[in-house]
Amino acid sequence: MKILITGVNGFIGTHLMEGILATTNWEVQGFDIASDNLKPFENNPRFKFFKGDMFKETEWLEEQIKTADVVVPLAGIAKPAYYLEKPLWTFEVDFEQNLKIVRLCAEHKTRIIFPSTSEVYGMSEDGVLNEDESPLITGPIAKMRWIYSCSKQMMDRMIFAYGQEKDLDFSIFRPFNWVGPRLDTFHDAEERKARSITQMIYDILFRGEISLVDGGEQRRSFTWIGDGIEGLINIIENKNGKAKGEIFNIGNPNNNYSIKELAEMIIEEMKGFPVYKDKAAVAKLNIVQADKYYGKTYDDLKNRVPSVEKMERLLDWKPKTEMSELLRKTISWYAEGEK
Questions:
Q1: Which residues, 6+ apart, have CB-to-CB distance to 200 below 8 Å?
Q2: Which of 149, 11, 17, 33 is CA-nearest to residue 70?
């Protein structure tokens, strides 16, 4: 089987490609605008890479989609700091460019596995978020955070429409706060554009304190990237066609913690690493208002807990990695880079 992965140099892209090469006999054609994370894989005979801009390489992409068995379009904007600063770019990449991919898949009868997001649930008040039943509720138009959520939600709806009218073969997956090596760089964190765990590790090391936006009371369900990739590969494999036409949450409801609790756990885990223990021992927590940290167009949601019943029932998958192990593995990767 040949898999086309756009955004292959990114966090999920590199881990998916690595997982495919390690556990299957599939071939991977990668596409991205950068390649800095791909050096360990460049000599693998089952991996090919093309460097290009998805805004400009439509002809090349169409040729690859024609010959691929499965397309996984991972290119997108997935960091709050970016879609607050560049909402138009976020919409253009996450919706317009990926809609182009979806249309080409429909035209050439190629299966697509689309990355939605847990953010589509927005401010849903459901205690556990169900793929097929929970309402998708977003905030006011002036709160620019929601352009990412709305772009992804509209893509989900368009994909379903193409499935209904054009017989597009698809599956959709919604990652819930996947965490692990290569999540973000310290350069991202220096500019306050990294996601929570990378930002916190950096802030402990270089600022001496972690900023808790609005006190860090927001709760998230954190998922080890390895568990997520196993689930995603199960979707691609599609045994007995059970993944066709379905949306799947991929997350770990047992790892549901507040951002404040996350900060406290990271500090404690970092104390166990000689390279980090001194700075972790004196790190402080600082409460900051959201509009001071992100600006006035920011908004947030209180909690996100995924139902993973469908993944377990249809694809025999459930998450295995608990929070302390997840954090220890992630921090270890950063610590190795410090040596």
A1: 210, 262, 263, 266
A2: 17
Rounded to an integer, what is the distance from CA 233 to the centroid of its chain? Answer: 15
Q: State residue 339's pLDDT score.
A: 42
Residues with a catalytic annotation lie at: 119, 304
CB atoms closer than 10 angstroms to residue 286: 11
Which residues are registered as beta bridge partners of 28? 3, 47
The tokens describing 169, both together, are 């073969």
Q: Which of 224, 182, 222 is nearest to 321 (CA)?
A: 224
Helix (H, G, I), strand (E, B) or coil at 295: coil
pTM: 0.95
Pairing mode of beta strands 219-221, 256-258: antiparallel
Burial 21-54 (b: 16+ CB within 10 A, else e): beeeebbbbbbbeeeebbeebeeeebbebbeeeb
Q: Which of 112, 101, 94, 113 is nearest to 151 (CA)?
A: 94
User: Once rounded to an integer, what is the mean pLDDT over residues 261-270?
Assistant: 97
Whole-number Å distance between alpha carbons of 190 and 179 = 19
CA distance 160 to 151: 14
251 residue type, one letter: G
Query: What tokens appear for 241 in the block?
Result: 């066609």
Q: 162: which 2 tokens?
A: 């193409």
Whole-angstrom distance, CA of residue 65 vs CA of residue 104 = 7
Q: Convert the pLDDT of each residue in 121-173 to its tens digit.
A: 999 999 999 999 999 999 999 999 899 999 999 999 999 999 999 999 999 99
Give yes or no for a contact between 11 and 178, defined as CB atoms under 8 angstroms apart: yes
Strand (E) positions, the chain? 2-6, 27-32, 47-51, 70-73, 111-115, 170-175, 178-179, 209-213, 219-221, 223-224, 247-250, 256-258, 284-288
